Amino acid sequence: MPFFAMFDPVYYLFLIPGLLLSLWAVGKTKATFAKYSRVPASNGLTGAEAAYHMLRAAGVTGVRIEPTRGMLTDHYDPRDRTLRLSEQVYAGRSLAAMGIACHEAGHALQHAQGYAMLGLRTALVPIVSFGSTLYMWIFIGGMLFRLPGLIQVAVILFSLTVLFSIVTLPVEWNASARAKRALVAAGIVSGAEARQAGQVLNAAFMTYVASAVTAVLTLLYYLFRSGLLGGGDD
Description:
Layout: H1 9-37, H2 47-57, E1 64-68, E2 75-77, E3 82-86, H3 87-90, H4 95-112, H5 116-132, H6 135-144, H7 148-185, H8 191-225
Parallel strand pairs: 1-3
Antiparallel strand pairs: 2-3
Helix pairs in contact: 1-8, 2-4, 4-7, 4-8, 5-7, 6-7, 7-8
């Protein structure tokens, strides 16, 4: 949250829907993960083993699978083709571990098969990382010194963050869809188990939806406060 916005009630008027959705999505994800973490997969595989079998069945090789610390810190890094799974997913033998591990393996499949939206998201990462550290200060400077040009630059920089959040949605949905199909096609779990594991992925997807909604609402707030939307430059 921008520091100056903490003292602006208008900010909360814009952000309340996104904040409520985020709280619900995080709670839903944790509850669903906890529920299916207690349901063992019939195959007895760990999450890491399930991801390996999924990639091998798809003919994808050269992807490292390694544990990483933290809860739900699972991710695929296309820069070094490494699948990093949180310890409870890496070594877990539950349906939740199966689902999350294979979702991340879905990103590795996207990378191997040249999925365009993943390529776009990866290309945006350094730009968004650079812009996210500057846009707030540029926006504050533009507001303080009444320099419309600076405000517009800040809005453009933050718009890239919004674009990143929106591009992330099809990337994550597609990875989950690949995981749900591959779980059954590769013989990792049964169809009923795949549907249960899929509930974890569906809940997790809502956190990305909440993030995108919050980003869009924050952009609308900046546009309003700068006078670029509705003349709200009081």
